[in-house]
Write a structure and sequence with these properties.
The protein is of the alpha+beta class. The protein has helices at residues 6-27, 36-112, 118-142, 156-175, 192-211, 246-251, 265-275, and strands spanning 153-155, 178-183, 186-189, 218-225, 232-239, 280-286, 289-300.
């Protein structure tokens, strides 16, 4: 709601006071008697007093409203600070709880690794690496504040190249999954941390689904300016192997589902991250493959 400025409330008060003075003068059935100078002073007082009182009342109303707004703002900021403190404390606690057992598990697995079959040892190592990356992301997010520009422009091809090299290529080699990508030179209006949150979840889902399928296994990534949506970059990830269950397709990441495949809450976070920058998500199964389509605001480089 927009409040009037102090001079506006004062002007309204003066206008009301003047209207009151004029009305009283017109309705005065018994005009005062006296000398000419007395009548002039009387008329001035009859107008000036209501106008002055109206201006004063307007200023008082403006001051009260300003104080109310200030109190609300302070209350909102206080609530926001409390929530931020709680979030930071909670994330620090979660980070601590992840790192300690992760370190202990890594030490035990390293000692006993030779006793595990090769495939089981590789699976354990992949999951340990995944947990380490989660801890690293929580540590980075913990240091962020509300000044972060979620719409920060990111060169998608360069960012994806680094992301794939760091977090996807080793798993592709371990699972013997062929990977193909076609990415145009585009910038997306989405901060790199949000991109990472989305693509980590989507590639984890694609790798798990493709890894359970028979050979040949493959994941295909494409990114281009959308032909149907103005100023939107369309990103598509397809994988062989397991397709999206009907329950996942019905919900489309708008809420969590009960799933043993780990594709419920992660997709909710992906959708919410995209919605932060006015993006969108669509899940489909096409020609026996799971297909994830993202639309992110962007432009050609």
């Amino acid at each position: 709601m927009r409040f009037l400025a102090p001079w506006q409330t004062m002007a309204v008060g003066m206008a009301l006071g003047l209207a009151y003075g004029i009305g009283e003068h017109l309705l005065d059935l018994q005009p005062p008697r006296g000398s000419r100078s007395f009548l002039m002073v009387h008329d001035l007082v009859e107008y000036i007093v209501p106008v002055a009182l109206g201006a004063t009342a307007g200023l008082l109303v403006s001051a009260v409203r300003r104080q109310i707004r200030l109190n609300r703002s302070l209350s909102t900021q206080n609530t926001k600070l409390k929530r931020q403190f709680f979030t930071q404390t909670l994330s620090a606690h979660i980070l601590h709880e992840i790192r300690n057992p992760l370190h202990n598990l890594a030490a035990v697995i390293e000692d006993q690794q030779r006793q595990f079959p090769k495939e089981e040892a590789a699976m354990l190592q992949r999951n340990l690496d995944r947990l380490k990356r989660v801890a690293e992301r929580i540590s980075r997010w913990h240091a962020l504040d509300e000044s972060l520009d979620l719409h920060e422009s990111t060169p998608l091809r360069a960012w994806l190249a680094q992301f794939l090299a760091d977090q996807v290529r080793p798993q592709l080699e371990q699972l013997d999954i062929a990977f193909e990508h076609r990415v145009e030179s585009v910038d997306v209006q989405m901060h790199a941390l949000l991109l990472e949150q989305c693509f980590v979840t989507l590639f984890n889902n694609a790798l798990e689904a493709a890894g359970r399928g028979p050979q040949p296994r493959s994941i295909v990534l494409s990114a281009r300016m959308s032909p149907d949506r103005n100023a939107q970059v369309e990103v598509e990830i397809r994988n062989t192997g397991a397709v999206y269950p009907d329950a996942v397709l019905a919900v489309q990441g708008e809420g969590p589902i009960d799933s043993s495949q780990g594709m419920g809450l992660g997709l909710v976070l992906v959708r919410r991250a995209l919605e932060q920058v006015d993006g969108s998500l669509r899940l489909t199964n096409q020609e026996g493959q799971a297909c994830t389509s993202l639309w992110i605001p962007g432009r050609r480089q």
